[in-house]
């Protein structure tokens, strides 16, 4: 279990594109790595692209909520982008509403949302 | 493709393999994308339960072609501690572990058929099916 999800820095933001079917430990690792990077580079925003994810189950859903909460405590905003329609339908039926997690349809809109949020703070 | 296959659930990587095998079976049966996603998500929840609470076990993935019905049936079996109170375990928000407590109840909502048998001290068997 040595693989990691790459975290890219773009100006004040961190960008994560999840492209593999993550096992649970990998998801927990990402959560840890992201919080560390936020502090390290003084990131003001985190953008997580999940357009390659074929499912979001309760574990991954919880990871997304946790990242958003931890980032908020560290003074950074989180936006999750690219959720597939079938994933959204399934997630709601599963009973998860991803409360506290901001979402946008794609990376461009997610970036715009992050910029607006930061400008109004 | 074989009508049924059995996969071990002994590690987190096995849980990923169960998701992938379930996906393959639903594609082979011509499921819509939403139906594929629902069954794969339910499989992920139950495989994780088998690993975390059952101490590992196995899943049988069966392709059911029983005209006019076509679907996929998954049977998760473990020899773990069992579930003392199934009604309670099915309730949203109930968890004896670190999860959200959405696994069992959520998986039930995502399927057309759901049954659970458990004997404390002997293990648990959860069977789910989804029809296309």
Structure description:
The complex is a heterodimer of chains A (121) and B (132). Helices cover 47% and strands 18% of the residues of chain A. Chain A has four helices and five strands, in the order ββαβαβαβα. Chain A has a five-stranded mixed sheet, with helices on both faces. The termini of chain A are far apart. Chain A is α/β, with parallel strands linked by helices and 121 residues long. In chain A, helix 1 (24-41) runs parallel beside helix 2. Chain B has helices spanning 12-28, 33-52, 86-90, 103-109, and strands at 4-9, 57-66, 69-78, 113-119, 123-131. In chain B, helix 1 (12-28) runs antiparallel to helix 2. Chain B has one domain: Histidine kinase-like ATPase, C-terminal domain (Heat Shock Protein 90), CATH 3.30.565.10. Chain B has a five-stranded antiparallel sheet with strand order 1-2-3-5-4, with helices on one face. Helices cover 37% and strands 32% of the residues of chain B. Chain B is of the alpha+beta class. Classes of the chains: A alpha/beta (121), B alpha+beta (132). The interface between A and B is medium-sized, with 24 and 26 residues.
Q: Which stretches of chain B are poorly predicted, pLDDT < 50 over at least 5 residues?
A: none
State the domain count of chain A. 1
Average predicted confidence as pLDDT of chain B: 91
Largest beta-sheet details of chain A: 5 strands, mixed
CATH class of chain B: Alpha Beta
Structural class of chain B: alpha+beta
| Fourth CATH level, the homologous superfamily of chain A | STAS domain
Overall pLDDT score of chain A: 94
CATH class of chain A: Alpha Beta
Strand order of the largest sheet of chain B: 1-2-3-5-4
In short:
Chain A contains 4 helices and 5 strands, in the order ββαβαβαβα. With 121 residues, chain A is α/β, with parallel strands linked by helices. By secondary structure, chain B is of the alpha+beta class.
């Amino acid at each position: 279990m040595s693989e990691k999800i790459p975290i890219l820095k773009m100006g004040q933001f961190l960008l994560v594109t999840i492209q593999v079917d993550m096992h649970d430990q990998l998801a927990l690792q990402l959560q840890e790595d992201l919080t560390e990077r936020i502090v390290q580079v003084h990131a003001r925003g985190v953008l997580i692209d999940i357009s390659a994810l074929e499912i979001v189950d309760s574990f991954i859903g919880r990871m997304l909520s946790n990242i958003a909460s931890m980032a908020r405590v560290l003074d950074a905003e989180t936006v999750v982008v690219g959720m597939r329609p079938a994933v959204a339908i399934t997630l709601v039926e599963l009973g998860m509403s991803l409360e506290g997690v901001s979402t946008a349809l794609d990376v461009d809109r997610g970036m715009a949302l992050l910029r607006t949020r930061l400008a109004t703070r | 493709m074989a009508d049924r296959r059995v996969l071990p659930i002994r590690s987190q990587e096995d849980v990923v393999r169960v998701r992938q095998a379930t996906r393959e079976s639903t594609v082979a049966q011509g499921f819509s994308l939403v139906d594929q996603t629902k069954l794969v998500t339910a499989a992920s929840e139950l495989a994780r339960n088998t690993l975390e609470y059952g101490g590992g076990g196995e899943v049988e993935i069966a392709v059911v072609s029983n005209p006019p019905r076509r679907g996929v049936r998954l049977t998760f079996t473990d020899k773990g501690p069992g579930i003392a109170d199934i009604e309670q375990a099915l309730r949203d928000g109930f968890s004896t572990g670190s999860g959200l407590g959405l696994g069992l109840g959520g998986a039930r909502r995502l399927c057309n058929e759901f049954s659970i048998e458990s004997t404390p001290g002997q293990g648990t068997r959860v069977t789910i099916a989804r029809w296309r």
